Write the structure tokens for this entry.
Amino acid sequence: MIFSSIEYFIFFVVVLLLMILVKSSSVKRAILVGASYYFYAYWNYRFIFLMLALTFVNYYAGLKIEASKDTKEKNRWLTASIIFDLGLLGFFKYLNFFIGSANVIFNPLNIQLPLLGIILPIGISFITFEVISYTIDIYRGVNKSAKSFWDFALLVAFFPHLIAGPILKPKQFLPEIRHDIIIRRKNVSYGIQIFLLGLVRKLFIADRLALFVDPVFAEPGDYSAITLWLAVIAYAMQIYCDFCGYTDMAIGSAKCLGFDIPKNFDIPYISQSVTEFWRRWHISLSSWLRDYLYIPLGGNRKGKQRQYINLLITMLLGGLWHGASWNFVVWGGLHGTALVIHKIYTDNVQSRYTIKSWLYNWFAWFVTLTFICITWVLFRSTNFSVSLYMLKKMFYLIDPVGINWYATSLLLCLPVLILTDFFGKKLTQGLKLRLTTFRGIFFIFFVIFGLILLAPHNSSPFIYFQF
Amino acid sequence: MKVIIKSLLGMICALLLWEVILENTLEHSPGFTHHPILGRINKPGIAMEAVEGFSRTRINSLGMRGGEILPKAKNEYRILCLGDSYTKALHVSDDRTFAELLQKKLRSLYKSKLINTINGGRDGASPAYYIQLASFYNSTIQPDAVVVEINDVDFVDFMVDQKKQFHVVKENNTFKPVYIKNFSSDNALSKVILNKFPQLSFLLEYSVVRVGGENLRKSFATKEGNTENPNQKFKKVLESQNYQPLVDWTVQQLKNKYKEKLVILYLPFFDYQNFNARESPIENSLKAITKKYEVNFVDPRQDFIESYQLHHQPAYGFNNTTPGIGHMNEIGHEIIADSLADFFKERIAE
């Protein structure tokens, strides 16, 4: 049940109606927990037990950490809960990756371990990070434990953010759960607008570009170097609109239900450095990595060299978080290296010389965007050798000949992407159409009909669901 | 009440704006009309296509692409090209269809003769149409040669599809042509409106209804996670049945109707990732059966392969779809026109 499906539309309307009809906030919370578990079970009902286990163990650990007066005991509970969380994540997501890598190392010794038939539970990386941040926050004294098990269950399972984030901060979200949940017309109206924006990003841009990107990445050998470059640019747009579209729909759905989910993107492709890019791209993950990995590693408190190493470690693990493959490790490593280089540059050059000109800004933007696009090759390719092959062909290191596919969808989607970013910015700045006015109704219908008439009918799953 | 009126007004205005946008940019069909012999044909008018490729063309009073057909001149050599959407080719511009290119090539070769080609392509048509309409085409158009474009889909789907106005059914050990006189449409949405709500048939004139209705139908029909490749599905069907009897019957019937004027043009489909894939069983049958009935047969398979190996550009697909898949693009039409021109060179010279 993806957000852009008819099933989700029916599901959401039913939940919203129930929330309107029910008066008691505790019943409303129960409805939301039930709906969230139903939403998760729609993919595979067996994994709701996994989510329940994660919820129960971390809730219990949170209570114990809070109740402990002794730091050692707190440490023990925190360590136990993190080992449990990462153990589950490691088993489901990384075990086969480690077995595969071990097989490569031990291949000369003729040792081959069998791969296990493990199904990756959808959204497990997001859920794990969510529960880890909950226990760490209690340990640090930043946040108190949830008032009840159901409050925590709702924080973990709240369906708009369940599958692909944003990773909610317990400190922000738990108080929202405790407030009276009231469905307000103003919120529903605003929520619908954000949801529609996400739907345009997903259906019109991401799904249309997928029709170009998928065949090229599936058979890069068939296409010319120029087509590969175009496909990489298209993928950069696709992944942004797919993930940002998902987040918009999550924010919109939550807003209709009376909850505020923080934004996850802030027009990332206008960034003039990789550092800026990570402040604008997948903000909830970047801040999670900063708060729960980079800072505990020492951040910038232990000297420059240590800071660079911390940045690199954070990004390598951030890459590995995305997927159990060397592609993601290298992708994270490249971004980490770029962050380090940028840090060295800002420390040594930018801090000494003030460089301000449109040409410099334009050049910085171009270099950043090119770097990001090139690294997307690793993110999208099926394996590392395909990535290398594509990069070689893109840089004319091997025969660049192949089918020239000047996909018109790229040309069509670019202005729409700019428009959606413009309207997205305006929406967050407070431009809201009142859905009771003629202008509001006309605009909503115009967008809905536009989607029906122009969006491709074969909607593809959200890219970030695999993580 | 006020909100309901506002909502209705807002909806209608949004629809109207989309209608204007679609009519002037992407999709426009002149609609359909009933012809006493040809059946349900495109109304004369302007047609546009955008799902694959793009063109803006004129439809004549016989529902064919191009201008009105004039009485045959004395020194005219007239070639009628019959076929389905691959021949009609709304995906490429008027001067890029193989019928038009063939005319250009032959005219440059034989300046003393007035060579005309007529594009008789019709969306979704099959040999069942050309067999049943042969006497009309022979008497009205008076062609000197009739090119019948055939592909695998004709035998696997179109010819035996009982939802088509002209189709064939199996009877004992042979086949029988069928014509549905009271035919409404082979499109699911149009059929529902025309059969159940005929008073609403005017709605089909609007692009928003046609395109929107079709997209909604497809969206509901597409199930999440259904990733079966339609090409592989087609291949499975193609290889699971014996089409030889139908191919034999078809060639024999076409030969009977068009006599020596008949030229069968086979359109091969390619897997551009695997040129070594064996030819389709229908192609092999056609080769043998056309030989048996002494029918002229043009199969440009080798020309398609050579062109791809030389230029690395597939003859099917467009920049707004996927190269290698779907209808023929300009390269494909050029190759077909070359193959046919080679064939007609000798014939006209004779």
About this structure: The domain at 75-344 of chain B is CATH 3.40.50.1110 (Rossmann fold). Chain B has 13 helices and eleven strands.
